[in-house]
């Protein structure tokens, strides 16, 4: 192979690599969990702030690099002292002060719309647990609606979130909808989210909170107002009694094995509040805080290998329960829509 051919080939490989890398980078800007694909008012403000900062920073960088190339390569002899003084005072003090002050003042004006609670009629309390999300819809004069690891919101409406944690610090973050806010034990922090598009978005814990921090995710489903109202009405109902024989056996096994000591299923004697409320667990998209799909097989896997799937979680593995009973419990949970 001639040197020319080797050069051409290496040029081709480098270009292909650059294209693949650029595609991968751009792919990271899209999807259900990206600040650069905003689907909420707060996320749009944050994305605008990001782009203005990136563009302003890039212009200044090009200017500084251009000047240094000019000084070292184009005009290499000594500069006029008067011009040099102006360059230092103007470019080193006045220009950055003006630009940084302008950017600071502009970014401060963005805080008010981000934090304003005006028009936020929907109030949701979220508690960061190890390692899942306890979600309470606080409806005035209504029943307590508790669910876990899934939040549904009506599109175009402002929702107020109050965030806390019973033990360690977590951080509540739905990048497509807004900024991230810490959940601090002993304190209540607030966040306003106003989704502008319907769809399913992914939320995550953004603060290291223990062994299974990486397995602490949730789904945010943004729906049309009437669909949301219907959904919330259903969530307020107690659980239906099981229809299939297998599911009825599952309910019996669920209660007999003491699952109700940690989990609540409204409408049954299960009233525990250590683990997630399972009243309508089958209506959720995923189980185990975003870990597994919501299928009877996944319920089986979860109960059988809890500690392997989510190390150090408070729920022990229930592999010692006979498989027939686990199958029945999975069938029962699968009916709790
Ligand atoms: Cu909760 Cu990290």
Structural class: alpha+beta
Rg value: 27 Å
Shape: elongated
Oligomer description: single chain
- For the largest beta sheet, what order do the strands appear in spatially? 3-2-1-5-8
Give the SSE string.
HHHHEEEEEEEEEEHHEEHHH
The portion of residues forming beta strands comes to 15-25%
Which short descriptors sum up this protein?
337 residues; alpha+beta; five-stranded mixed beta sheet; 9 helices; elongated; binds dinuclear copper ion
Give a brief outline of the structure.
The protein is of the alpha+beta class and 337 residues long. 42% of the residues lie in helices and 18% in strands.
Please tell me about this protein's structure:
The chain has 337 residues and is an alpha+beta fold. 42% of the residues lie in helices and 18% in strands. It is built from 9 helices and 12 strands. The protein has helices at residues 3-27, 41-74, 81-109, 111-115, 225-236, 245-256, 296-304, 306-309, 323-335, and strands at 122-129, 132-137, 145-148, 150-154, 159-164, 170-173, 181-183, 189-193, 199-205, 217-223, 286-287, 292-293. Strands 3-2-1-5-8 form a 5-stranded mixed beta sheet. A 5-stranded mixed beta sheet has the order 4-10-9-6-7. Strand 2 (132-137) and strand 3 form a beta hairpin. Helix 6 (245-256) crosses helix 9 (323-335) and helix 7 (296-304) crosses helix 9. The mean pLDDT is 90. The structure holds dinuclear copper ion. The site of dinuclear copper ion has 9 residues, from loops.
């Amino acid at each position: 192979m001639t040197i020319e051919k080797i050069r051409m080939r290496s040029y081709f490989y480098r270009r292909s690599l650059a294209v693949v890398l650029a595609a991968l980078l751009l792919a990271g800007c899209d999807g259900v969990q990206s600040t650069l694909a905003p689907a909420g008012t707060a996320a749009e403000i944050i994305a605008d702030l990001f782009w203005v900062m990136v563009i302003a920073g890039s212009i200044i960088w090009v200017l500084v690099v251009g000047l240094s190339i000019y000084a070292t390569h184009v005009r290499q002899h000594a500069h006029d002292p008067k011009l040099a003084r102006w360059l230092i005072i103007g470019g080193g003090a006045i220009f950055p002060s003006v630009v940084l002050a302008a950017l600071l003042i502009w970014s401060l004006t963005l805080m008010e719309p981000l934090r304003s609670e005006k028009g936020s009629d929907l109030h949701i309390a979220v508690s960061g647990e190890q390692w899942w999300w306890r979600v309470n819809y606080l409806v005035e004069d209504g029943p307590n609606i508790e669910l876990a690891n899934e939040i549904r919101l009506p599109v175009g409406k402002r929702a107020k979130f109050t965030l806390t944690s019973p033990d360690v610090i977590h951080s509540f973050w739905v990048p497509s909808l807004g900024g991230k806010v810490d959940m601090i034990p002993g304190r209540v922090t607030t966040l306003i989210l106003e989704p502008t598009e319907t769809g399913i978005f992914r939320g995550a814990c953004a603060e290291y909170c223990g062994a299974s921090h990486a397995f602490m995710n949730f789904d945010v489903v943004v729906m049309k107002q009437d669909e949301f109202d219907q959904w919330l009405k259903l969530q307020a109902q107690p659980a239906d009694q099981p229809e299939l024989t297998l599911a009825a056996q599952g309910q019996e096994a669920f209660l007999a094995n003491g699952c109700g000591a940690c989990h609540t299923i409204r409408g049954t004697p299960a009233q525990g509040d250590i683990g997630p409320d399972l009243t309508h667990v089958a209506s959720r998209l995923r189980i185990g805080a975003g870990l597994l799909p919501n299928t009877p097989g996944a319920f089986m896997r979860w109960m059988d290998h809890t500690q392997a799937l989510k190390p150090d979680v408070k729920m022990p593995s229930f592999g010692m329960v006979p498989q027939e009973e686990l199958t029945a419990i999975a069938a029962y949970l699968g009916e709790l829509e």
